Amino acid sequence: MDLYQEAEELKKVPMFSRLGASKLKLMAFTSEAVEFHDQDILFHVNDPSDSAYVIMSGEVEILVETDEGMVPVVTRGKNEIIGEMAVLTNLPRSATLRAKGPVRTLRISNDAFLKLLSNSPEVALDVMRQLSLKLAESTNMMQNLSQEIERLQNRLEEVGDSE
Predict the structure, then answer these.
(1) CA–CA separation, 26 and 45 (whole Å)
(2) Distance CA 13, CA 17 (A)
(3) How far apart are the first and last CA of the chain?
(4) Answer CATH for 3-162 from 3.40.930.10, 3.40.50.300, 2.60.120.10, 3.20.20.140
(5) What's the pTM?
């Protein structure tokens, strides 16, 4: 895929949709196209935050460690950005990402991503919106899990009382 095609694909990513052609070409030029096969790991929990990824095609699973091993909790797909939280906070990765089938991405280095945000208020605002949505999604999942745990505990108590 050439630079112009990558710039056109980046325009389909909501976060980059309002960028002009020259900024999109610069983003495509400074990014690295990376392909992953099914079950490939994009990065592991606690890896250094060196880049963000734009999913150009395919899906990735966000995995968390449990007593039962790694468990997928969320799936992200085409035109979504992943890894941006670690880039913004400069903290290690908070989860492991695994390809769910073939995945094509653009890898954006920390420096390029942060420069884009500082030079493009519209992109920075969209990143804040997306992070807020991800936070709301995580909060909702935690509430649902908490309710499910409480339901199971009540059920166990009922079973114990009936014996």
Answers:
(1) 30
(2) 6
(3) 66
(4) 2.60.120.10
(5) 0.77
Range from 22-26, 120-124, 140-144 that averages highest in pLDDT: 22-26
Which tokens hold the place of 138?
A: 């995580």
Q: Which amino acid is at 121?
A: P
Q: If we measure between CA atoms, which residue out of 94, 91, 92 comes closest to residue 47? A: 92
Give how far Cα 89 sits from Cα of 4, 53, 58, 82, 96, Å: 31, 16, 26, 14, 17
Give the helix ranges, DSSP H, for the chain. Answer: 3-11, 21-30, 84-89, 110-119, 121-162
pLDDT at 104: 95
pLDDT band at 54 (very low <50, low <70, confident <90, very high): very high
Answer whether 45's CB lies under 8 Å from 93's CB. yes
Average pLDDT over residues 118-144: 80
Give 92's Cβ-side CA count (13 Å radius): 6
pLDDT of 34 reads: 94
**Would you say residue 99 has pLDDT above 90?**
yes
Exposed / middle / buried, residue 13 (Cβ in 10 Å: 0-12, 13-18, 19+): buried
